[in-house]
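Encode chain A's predicted structure.
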Amino acid sequence: MQATQKAINAIKSKTDVSQINDTTTDADFLSIRADGKLYRIPLNEILFIEGLKENVKVVTEQKTFITLETFKNLELLLPTNQFLRVHKSFMITKNKVRSLDGNMLEIGKAQIPISRERKDELVKLIFGDK
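Encoded structure for chain A:
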């Protein structure tokens, strides 16, 4: 009886947790697993995301996270009005761009390459019709 009750409680607690997560999902955060921990990163702190061979690097204002999440999956998860894929291996936060020099965007202290084929389109999306 005790084992059955423990199993029922465990199933209920798992169900309750998933229901809480579904109802309190906040679109202002990205959840990723890195360094053996689960992180909840505010979207407004993300500077850019870089696709590595089998990992993805999420660079924020304070820290860099490396996760096994796929680049394509993150691209689908992030809001397109804030994030923009500018190169086959880079996504940026639009409002974090400081400048453009040739085919390189300056975000924080980093230089991010942009696609030559889409440069004109990307400049309009990031800087407006300048």
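DSSP finds three helices and ten strands in the chain.
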